[in-house]
Amino acid sequence: MAEAGHIRITEVGPRDGLQNESVVVGIADKVAFIDHLSRSGVAEIEVSSFVSPEWVPQLADAEAVFAGIARTPGVVYSALVPNERGLDRALAAGVDKVAHFTAASEAFCQRNTNASIDETFERLAPVVAGARAAGVPVRGYISCVVMCPYEGPIDPATVRVVAARLLDAGVQEIDLGETIGVAVPADIQRLYDGLAGLLDPVDTTLHLHDTRGTALACAAAAMDLGVRSFDASCGGIGGCPFAPGAAGNLATGDLAYFCDRMGHATGVDLDALFDAARHISAVLGRDLPGRVFRADGKIPTTPARR
Amino acid sequence: MAEAGHIRITEVGPRDGLQNESVVVGIADKVAFIDHLSRSGVAEIEVSSFVSPEWVPQLADAEAVFAGIARTPGVVYSALVPNERGLDRALAAGVDKVAHFTAASEAFCQRNTNASIDETFERLAPVVAGARAAGVPVRGYISCVVMCPYEGPIDPATVRVVAARLLDAGVQEIDLGETIGVAVPADIQRLYDGLAGLLDPVDTTLHLHDTRGTALACAAAAMDLGVRSFDASCGGIGGCPFAPGAAGNLATGDLAYFCDRMGHATGVDLDALFDAARHISAVLGRDLPGRVFRADGKIPTTPARR
To answer: Of A185, B36, B46, B80, which sits 20 to 30 A from A21 (CA to CA)?
Structure first.
């Protein structure tokens, strides 16, 4: 079992979560959501995406959101950028880190980014150069590290090739995205076996979806292998675009609860996180799938208890 | 990681699940539910409970349900019996196995069974004797093996004492109930460490609740320790009486999916299981929490695909 230690949580609800919600959330509600999250103790918040507004209308207000949030010292505020134009906007908004998408599946890459894998690397080069000049680190996402909804199972050797290209391109962090939420611990083992000698588990971030209830089992397996950085989404917002009504990202509360009881420090205060989840649940007008939030967070505790 | 092998699944939805639903389900709908489950490939179905009808009105029709179901050869049809009177009714109904409750928490035992732990053993003795005379095995449930909602954390040494008493009493199977759904893999490790030398993991059944999303992570840890028998509830029906709106039992589909992808055979056909989940979801008039059912089971596949 993994030794106790610190687990770093990146909150992706405002970007990956809201991008997959049908309700379009206004600027003030997004700002309030992120300000709640800033008080929850997460290490990083993926605030928005500087993609074309026509491409992702839910996140067309990225500049206004960045301008509106109250930044907590020590929290990293990041954003997705698809290309150099997006980087320029992100830098002007004062991001602390940028993230760029590629995939281990050609079909998924084409549908998700409107580019081939090769083209995502062509777009990445000026992003890395510009970010480096600005002193901003780059996270490289690899989607579909276990399964693609169009191509089926992904060979870990393919993930390794894409990871090697990201390292060559100069990204500071590689985020392995189990986009579809099908993985079990055996898949996580095979994934990291495939990266052996190239990339240590401790140098990766793992992005899990809880579509089939397996996310925490996969996180536990990853922690056993040495992974110490995970993405999660407040309340599990986001859903799964390939399975309407299904759960989406691993819920931040579920991950933080799990880490806490396993003896891993995350810095997350569950009561503060529940404030964020109650806010966004009310804005979205629906129950959220996060299990710990449903069990322990839907009724606010009194200030005295906190 | 656990070696591939066979995992035995006991479906507890008709008893533990329906007992915790507010909707009272009619006899015909229960029979149809169980008949669907019989076709799903689960090894055992806990059909009902022969407790006093005043105590659990949802299950007051145990005799009629047993009389109505179509039994599939090879499937074990079991029922809960609190005492000798319940055993007589269960034997008359033709049960294949009976189950009896005790707990590792005195406060929970009192509230759940209206008896002290000592008194549950007094009631158990004639149940074991009568079951043995009838050639029917007895499962002994221990509730609250990790946490009690009234007493808090439970010492694994306490579970060991209760397990030893159950073995002395002559039960054929011990079922460890993580009743509250708080456990993480470290708890499962401590639980089985506490049983070392008394009871091998392979000789236990583990009963998990997914209240906080940790059930499959705990199941994975248990499989690594050698556990090969688990309880689960179709679609995750049942809820949690201590957290309204929260998830209940580990969903059978989530467990069967997990086992299948981990290379463990369960005999469960997910499509047939989804038929059972769709039926009971319609009867209960609500969405079910089971993650795999939500992702893959809500829309029937065509017979051709099956």
So the answer is: A185
Pairing state between β A76-80 and A44-49: parallel
C-alpha to C-alpha distance for A170 and A59, rounded to whole angstroms: 27
Q: What is the pTM of this model?
A: 0.95
Q: Are B232 and A235 in contact (CB under 8 A)?
A: no
For residue range A252-277, what is the model confidence (pLDDT) as tens digits? Answer: 999 999 999 999 999 999 999 999 99
Residue B82 lies in a domain: yes
**Domain of residue B187, residue span:** 8-296
In a domain, residue A75? The reply is yes
The catalytic residue positions of B are 240
SS3 A158: helix
Q: Is residue B1 included in any domain, yes or no? A: no
Residue B2 domain flag: no
Number of domains in chain B: 1
Residues of chain B with Cβ-Cβ distance to A216 below 8 Å are: 213-214, 216-217
CA distance B112 to A226: 42
Let me know: does B243 contact A296? Beta carbons within 8 Å.
yes
Nearest neighbour of B254 by CB, restricted to A212, A245, A263: A212
Q: List the CATH number of the domain containing A274.
A: 3.20.20.70
User: SS3 of A300, please?
Assistant: coil
Three-state SS string across chain B, please?
Answer: CCCCCECEEEECHHHHHHHCCCCCCCHHHHHHHHHHHHCCCCCEEEEEECCCCCCCHHHCCHHHHHHHCCCCCCCEEEEECCCHHHHHHHHHHCCCEEEEEEECCHHHHHHHHCCCHHHHHHHHHHHHHHHHHHCCCEEEEEECCCEECCCEECCHHHHHHHHHHHHHHCCCEEEEEECCCCCCHHHHHHHHHCCCCCCCHHHEEEEEECCCCCHHHHHHHHHHHCCCEEEEEHHHCCCCCCCCCCCCECEHHHHHHHHHHHCCECCCCHHHHHHHHHHHHHHHCCCCCCHHHHHHHCCCCCCCCC
Q: Which pLDDT tens digit goes with each residue over B87-145?
A: 999 999 999 999 999 999 999 999 988 999 999 999 999 999 999 999 999 999 999 99
Q: Which of A291, A292, A299 to mutate to test the interface with B (most CBs of B within 10 A)?
A: A291
* CA proximity to B248, closest of B284, B286, B213: B213
> Which residue in chain B has the smallest CA separation from A216?
B217
Phi–psi pair at B85, nearest 5 degrees:
-60, -45
The overall average pLDDT reported for chain B is 94
Q: Which residues of B touch A217 (CB under 8 A)?
A: 216-217, 219-220, 258
Residues in CB range of B245: below 8 A, 6 or more apart: A287, A294, A298, B239
